[in-house]
Amino acid sequence: MTAYVIGNITVKDPDKWAEYRSLVPDTLVPWGAELVLRGTQAKVLSGQYRHTDTVVIRFPNADSVVDWHDSPAYQALVPLRTQAADVDLVTFEADQ
């Protein structure tokens, strides 16, 4: 079943964030993941949204999400991510 990672992001350091963003795609390749969306907030239609950016990544299954997140390649980027932005990462399995 397809799984998605959604990242809700508030950028703290644009230069470090740009560096982090440039490095993440290579970490996705071994897991067959696809970057679906990288975007900045356009408009809140309902409720409240405190973040400035969002990312959506599609994975073949939930196991590949965990394997990617826990991989040495991605974990090496976590300190840079922490310096660059406040990031809430969640994963969902698709119903369809």
TrEMBL record:
This is DUF1330 domain-containing protein. PANTHER family: BLR0684 PROTEIN, PTHR41521. Residues 2-93 form the DUF1330 domain. InterPro entries: Dimeric_a/b-barrel, DUF1330.
